[in-house]
Design a protein that fits this description.
3 domains, EC 5.4.99.-, Pseudouridine synthase, RluA_PseudoU_synthase, PsdUridine_synth_RsuA/RluA, alpha+beta, 4-stranded antiparallel beta sheet, 15 strands
């Protein structure tokens, strides 16, 4: 059990207790809140306080908690659809339903477990030890092309290429309604929802810039088959942007309509292409993951207006 007493400085004046302890300990906010609810936090000498308490300069906050036991990553023989591989990077076509890296509730069966088995123990030293090789992510129920680093020298370069948006990513989606115009740009800042911590939302004052370019491939009676290119890469960006303009991605469990009956598990969203410069040679490379059968089935069903 860890125990510490934190003295609140003038710079921390007014912060919520859970935010203050998150910054001081490195724990997640939910972990801090769990220990607060358990009665492990007090304002010395012995006043019990809650997550929404706002700290004041000079407060002495006593906090004790147990370190979360780190899960040991194991390699697992999980099939990978490999689009390209060399000594420095691997490009895969991720299946829908696969989590990218271990986390709460997903300690095995992830893409990282598969990569460790395929690439070998040397992958453990590449990047973050809790998610070795991972330079960007796709949501669990988003399929498609994704790159991972296999060497330390490639890791930093790929990470910067993704973060700076030098790498070009293109998605295919089936969305509700007919889009207003063949092409368009959505510029709406995004941040974590203040109402539901599992979701993200358009936050005009506090959100981070987010830009999605879209192009309609095919208009359907009640739907649109579209291509989206990301100028930024915020969490759930396409899903939130489309829902906000009332063209939610079909079957989206977080942001969509609840009465979708399409033959797909999760949102009808696919990472279609990725273009980047090779981290070592600098060669421009283009990768494409074919649109999966479940999305083609959704498209065909959407074409049959009388059946919907």
């Amino acid at each position: 059990m860890n125990q510490n007493v934190y003295l609140v400085s003038v710079a921390d004046e007014g912060k919520r207790l859970d935010q203050f302890l998150k910054e001081r300990t490195g724990l997640t906010r939910s972990e801090v809140q769990k220990w607060i609810k358990a009665g492990n936090v007090s304002l010395l000498p012995k006043k019990m306080i809650h997550s929404n308490y706002h700290v004041s300069e000079g407060d002495r906050i006593s906090f004790f908690w147990e370190e979360k036991k780190k899960q040991e990553l194991i390699g697992q023989n999980i099939p990978l659809d490999i689009l390209y591989e060399d000594n420095d990077m691997i490009v895969i076509n991720k299946r829908r339903g696969v989590v990218v890296h271990p986390g709460a509730g997903n300690t095995e069966g992830t893409l990282v477990n598969a990569l460790l088995f395929h690439c070998g123990e040397q992958l453990r030293s590449v990047g973050d030890p809790e998610r070795p090789g991972i330079v960007h992510r796709l949501d669990k129920d988003t399929s498609g092309v994704m790159v991972a680093a296999k060497s330390e020298r490639a890791y930093g370069i790929l990470q910067k290429e993704i973060a700076s948006h030098k790498a070009q990513r293109c998605y295919i989606a089936l969305v509700h309604g007919q889009m207003e115009g063949d092409t368009g740009v959505i510029r709406l800042p995004l941040g974590r929802s203040t109402k539901d911590r599992m979701k993200w939302d358009v936050l005009h004052e506090t959100g981070r810039p987010a830009v999605t370019h879209f192009h309609v491939i095919e208009y359907l009676p009640h739907y649109s088959w579209i291509e989206c290119k990301l100028e930024t890469g915020r969490t759930h960006q396409i899903r939130v942007h489309m829902a906000h303009i009332r063209h939610a991605v079909v079957n989206d469990p977080l942001y969509g309509w609840k009465k979708d009956h399409f033959p797909i598990k999760g949102q009808a969203l696919h990472s279609h292409t990725l273009e980047l410069c090779h981290p070592i040679t600098g060669e421009v490379m283009h990768f494409e993951a074919p649109v999966p059968e479940d999305m083609i089935n959704c498209l065909n069903l959407a074409r049959k207006e009388s059946m919907l």
